[in-house]
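Protein modeling request. Please complete all fields; requests missing the sequence field cannot be processed.
Requester role: graduate student
Desired output: 3D structure, token encoding
Chains: 1
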Amino acid sequence: MNIIRLHSTNDPLFPVFERLYRSSFPEFEQRTVEHQAKGLTADNYFLQCYMENELFVGFVAYWAFDDYLYIEHYAISDKVRGQGYGTRLLGEFIAGTDKTVILEIDPVVDEISQKRLRFYRALGFVENDYVHVHPPYQHKFHGHTLKVLSSGSAISEAKYQNFNHDLHHVVMEK
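Delivered output (174 residues):
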């Protein structure tokens, strides 16, 4: 798979990314185009699109910090969903770093959210028991409760507090 890092909303792949992004996440979990453009100016923000030949497979939007990577958004194109690309992409992403990978999922309340948790567990993610409210992306929304997962093992209280601080003061500010 080819990995293409987007650097601005003017990149030719940005509209392809944006279609999948907008269809994969509810509006309250989305950056606006302006917020996305601002994020792309940060050296530690990576918006990576994955291509197989000419086929857009999906994307990972993540932040690199000193001792962990935070996957802010991740989605696989519905054209290839169920064909192992999600497992392959995320598996290679995790294998490509010696840092802990942190991500968030919706609370497990139904079969779809249970399936999502099983997917991440199969890749080596574990649940963390911290009460976690993700700050709103837009002023018209409120924060929303999410479950924090981390690769390999649970994170310490200090690492969680560091992540939560970075989320509020770096990720959401860019």
